[in-house]
Amino acid sequence: MENKLTAWQRVELARHKDRLKAQDYIHYLFDDVLELHGDRLYKDDHAIVGGIGYFHDMPVTIIAQSKGKTLEENMDRRFGMSNPEGFRKAMRLAKQAEKFNRPIITLVDTAGAYPGKEAEERGQAQAIAECLSLFSDIKTPVIAIVLSEGGSGGALALSISDRLCMLENAVYSVLSPEGFASILWKDESLVKEAAEVMKLTSYDLNDKGIIDFIVKEVEGGIQNNPLYSFKQLDQYIFNELQVLNKKDKESLVKERYSKWRHLGI
Amino acid sequence: MEHLFNQRKEELKEFQSWFNRNKKIEPKEIPENIFKQCGKCHQSIPIHTLIDHLYTCPHCQYHFRLSARERLRQLLDDGTFKELYKNDITIDREDFPSYQKKLETSQKQTGLNEAVVCGVGKINNTKCVICVMDSHFMMGSMGRVVGEKITKSVEYATRKKLSLIITCASGGARMQEGMDSLVQMSKISSAIKRHSNEKLLYITLLTHPTTGGVSASFGMLGDIIISEPQALIGFAGRRVIEKTIKEKLPEDFQTAEFLLEQGFVDMIVNRQDMKQVLGQILKMHEVTYGK
Predict the structure, then answer these.
(1) pLDDT digits (tens, 9 = 90+) for A47-92
(2) Do A130 and B221 touch (CB under 8 A)?
(3) Which of A63, A181, A183, B220 could pair with A190 as two cysteines, CB 3.0-4.6 Å apart?
(4) Can you give the residue range of the structural domain that contains B44?
């Protein structure tokens, strides 16, 4: 299927009010999911949920940036924008997965890390940096899926993986088109132009080699026919895990390094 | 005969000193009568006094922003710096002309190709790889070339089993390059992880400002993290936070002193002591037990 929507149209689809959330994906893709809580240091951040479950017959660790469906849920989860303890929870679960040889599936869906006072006090920058470092060297397969919005370092922290795939209408960039237009052009009304220049759609990033696979959506977005996309995603994860699980730890990590080493040159 | 021999020796010496003249990094030639105003106490300081004080205010200790060249002059032993990957230049982006223009202006203003200078040098006689960011070049923002130069330098340090120092001075990822700038964070962090796996030392030196994608990657990954006094260090910008939480932030929020209190930097070091402290740390890590 060819790329026929404008970048801004995709931004609008990615932000659609009925856009599916991480919970929907987890519900479809995994069985017998047990949620695990807390970073063992400070708190349980609800903006990142995690746990263990079965993918087909294989136990996997799931780490997901989870936006809420209602206003109350979103207040509780800060619209999926995590505090440092969220990233630290992700790291704890990743290390646990490595210990028990479980593959990790991460679901990326955030406008960015939360820009709050307490987040800074507890080391937002340090938490993201550690996350990047840890996932680059974790000795178990990692597959990351960008669901709708990937923004900045907060999204990147959970993207370091052996395979990075993206929903067709998801967008991923260093900041929002609004931010881009207002900072670089001092004019927030230029968002559509900004979206084009930023090269943030799944097709742009596929061309650049940053992502490995595009999960197609039906016209009007995934909410119109979730099964259509879920099936592709299920098949993709299944196939890739078959490949990744066969690799010895050393070459897995080596290949991951080389994958990320050759981006953005 | 003896006389001729001595004369020849003298000439040779003269030639050698002439030959080595460029290896020492001198402060730029500046006329005597130029003054600079301190950004904090607003006193006027003669430029030569400022140079003697390593670009800190003699009255209030305010640390002026340094160019990469001046930072190298202050930290490294004379004549020991060898620049690496000097000719890496950002490739044209024909679809984004205003960015290309900005790059050219920055190159002219700073005399640099990009916002970071990398190389090998010695600090108090200990060899190390050093990357110095320069905030005068597009706010030290990190794009493809900055990321690539730092990554190559980290890999070089890993290969040659050398300690690594990165001096941060950056507003974060370079927005003009979009996703390409973001992935530099992961690239450098992975390279540093490999350096660390080889049990090699990495020191981060945070200077004003270190924010966004730079603090949230290699800025916070040092085995030892040092900051200059009063440097701004953080992830999100002050205005963004104030807009989000709808309250005013305290004066000292996101300063080096604040981060020290919160436990995110090891020490705050004055510019006058910086070389000695770095030298000592490097020296202490030369000793390896049980090898």
Answers:
(1) 999 999 999 999 999 999 999 999 999 999 999 999 999 999 999 9
(2) yes
(3) A181
(4) 26-64
